[in-house]
Amino acid sequence: DADVTQTPRNRITKTGKRIMLECSQTKGHDRMYWYRQDPGLGLQLIYYSFDVKDINKGEISDGYSVSRQAQAKFSLSLESAIPNQTALYFCATSAGFGTQYFGPGTRLTVL
Amino acid sequence: QKEVEQDPGPLSVPEGAIVSLNCTYSNSAFQYFMWYRQYSRKGPELLMYTYSSGNKEDGRFTAQVDKSSKYISLFIRDSQPSDSATYLCAMMRDTDKLIFGTGTRLQVFP
């Protein structure tokens, strides 16, 4: 089984809808991250969490929120989706020092 | 100006060639330097990790960091079609937050 799993893998939704992307990990890491990836822009950090009670905004947090339900679970929500949030979303975990392990990604399309 | 600059490519080479991938950066506080490989429709995976300046070798891969020039490189020897992927450089100061380059797409043809 994969160490970092993301659900759903693909999602098409409409403008204004609320969407939740889920991430689970079995690596036992405290640190978890949400990124989005757009062509030509690379990976941009949305939110990160160093433990269950520590959640921090990244570079591009506007329009997103997160919930750290447990050490192993970190969810990303789009409260009211808009078309420019169409992107590939990745969850990652880390034990520290930059060695991050990524999930397979969720391809989100907002119409 | 972006903190990390990386040529997006694509870079197309024949099998067996030596490949050189590069990134430049502007923040002298970066201490940790990484290369991630991303296959199409997959998440990035850590390929090489270097702390501070110097070289690190792992099989066909060599990572090089020149902090005085703010320049890092990844060399791939005897490139294979299976090396075809996007290569992302990444850097970190001390807080476990990575700054990524935009990635270079590499294609190795038989």
Shape of chain A: globular
> What is the N-to-C order of secondary-structure elements of chain A (H for helix, E for strand)?
EEEEEEEEEEE
The counted number of beta strands of chain B is 11
H and E order of chain B: EEEEEEEEEEE
| Fraction of residues in H or I helices of chain A | under 10%
How would you explain this protein's 3D organization?
The complex is a heterodimer of chains A (111) and B (110). With 111 residues, chain A is mainly beta. Chain A has strands spanning 4-7, 10-13, 19-25, 31-38, 42-51, 54-57, 64-70, 73-78, 87-94, 100-102, 106-110. In chain A, strands 2, 4, 5, 6, 9, 10 and 11 form a 7-stranded mixed sheet that branches. In chain A, strands 1-3-8-7 form a 4-stranded antiparallel sheet, with no helix packed on it. Chain A starts with a strand and ends with a strand. Chain B is mainly beta and 110 residues long. Helices cover 0% and strands 55% of the residues of chain B. Chain B contains no helices and 11 strands. In chain B, the strands form 2 sheets. In chain B, strands 2, 4, 5, 9, 10 and 11 form a 6-stranded mixed sheet that branches. In chain B, strands 1-3-8-7-6 form a 5-stranded antiparallel sheet, with no helix packed on it. In chain B, strand 7 (61-66) and strand 8 (71-76) form a beta hairpin. Chain A binds chain B through residues 4, 31, 40-43, 45, 48, 50, 58, 90, 92, 94, 96-105, and chain B through 6, 8, 32, 34, 41-46, 49, 88, 90, 92, 96-98, 100-103.
